[in-house]
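#struct-queue
[09:14] JT: dropping the first one here, sequence first, then the structure tokens:
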Amino acid sequence: MLSTFAENPFFGIVLSFSFFLIGGLLHKRWPNPLFTPLVFAIISIILLLLITDIPYESFNVGGRFINLWITPATVALAIKLEKNFDYLKKYYPAILSGIALGVIFQTIILLIVSVLFQFSPDMVATLFPKSVTTAIALGVSESLGGIVSLTVAIVVFTGVLGTIVGPPIFALLKITDPVAQGVALGSSSHAMGTAKAIEMGDVQAAMSGLSIILTGIIIVILAPFAIEIIQILF
């Protein structure tokens, strides 16, 4: 009976929205990173599916419709960027160089760690696009010969981690500039980081949305070179 009900498309949709709203209410009452709506919804849904033994495929009958909204939601961030375009004009050298250097640095770190721990080429390819939005990460991982399903899990984990630890790191290092906060969240934690940036303010949201796009472009440009490096090193 339960498994039949779970195969209804409305099950995945209602479940996702319900946990997201509950997380929002809890976060307002207790501003704990684990109660961040997106993080809370992901963890709660996973636990519910495990406890009730409902297959992920059943949940995803409705869940996949939510995926269709990711692209228009990301494009809608351009509205906030347009409203805060003065920040881009004023700080574009720092923004562009910061995003580019961040991607290059994380690529170098990944290659060093891969050599030290003797990762296989397909594992390196799987990890390479971890900081970009899922749609781009899937294409890059597949083109590099990575494990696509594992890339999805790593991308989600990276986004959740950035959402949780981002604000505390800002507080610890006294990073109060909204442009810096937005660029950091968008370039490291893609859409999930941007969701957090939206909570923090319009400037953070605009810069984070811009960072998602630019980080994805740079990753795609670096992908062919990454293939050559992987082949040489491994």
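[09:21] JT: and here's the second one, same format:
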Amino acid sequence: MMLRAWLFLGALLGAAAGGYVPLLWGGSLWSLSSVLLSVAGGLAGIWLGFKIDAAMED
């Protein structure tokens, strides 16, 4: 059950952070780079969620 929570939180925060990055260089929230970075951030967040869950089990 905790694994699902970590994965959801990681995907949510990673996608939000990745989608926000293009604003730092003057891009739009609805640009292609924002969508692609949002996907990349979500995947990175899921990976980090797995790592956190594995570390908490030890």
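[09:30] RK: nice, looked through the second one.
[09:31] RK: The longest helix spans residues 32-57.
[09:31] JT: good to know. The chain has a mean pLDDT of 93.
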